[in-house]
Design a protein that fits this description.
Layout (H helix, E strand, L loop, with lengths): L9 H21 L11 H11 L8 H34 L4 H41 L1
Helix pairs in contact: 1-4, 3-4
Length: about 140
């Protein structure tokens, strides 16, 4: 005897898929081991590679200022990327509400949230460096 899940309408199917996607989003956002070394997310992988290319931390005033400028540049690029995802979401929402379009919207929302997380991380890094620089100036 087969167990078959049947839906009375396409709306029920969409709701079920959306529920699974929302659960997945929360799982990925709040699970500590999800973004491990084998990360296949294009946004996270791209940023990880960018961070790997950065030189070691230079705690001189000029070095900190350069790192702050680099982080601000990364923040600006990430903001542009987040805006592109936001535009993609808006465009997909204007199109017909097919199941594929709904999945595309959810995927773009996930990428947008991940990009916002990267922006926040870079802002935190930049602020930490600014604090180190100010502490250096205060105690000199």
């Amino acid at each position: 005897m087969k167990n078959i899940i049947s839906f009375n309408s396409t709306k029920e199917q969409i709701r079920a898929i959306v529920a699974v996607f929302l659960f997945s989003i929360f799982y990925f956002l709040f699970s500590s081991g999800v973004f491990a070394a084998e990360d296949i997310n294009p946004v996270r992988s791209k940023m990880s590679l960018a961070l790997a290319d950065q030189p070691p931390v230079d705690l001189t005033s000029n070095g900190i200022n350069q790192q702050i400028l680099n982080l601000r540049k990364q923040i600006e690029e990430l903001n542009k990327q987040a805006e592109q995802y936001r535009n993609n979401i808006t465009q997909k929402q204007k199109e017909a509400n097919t199941l594929k379009r709904q999945i595309d919207i959810l995927n773009n929302q996930i990428l947008q949230l991940q990009t916002k997380i990267f922006i926040t991380e870079r802002q935190i890094e930049s602020t930490k460096l600014e604090i180190i620089d100010l502490e250096g100036r205060i105690f000199d």
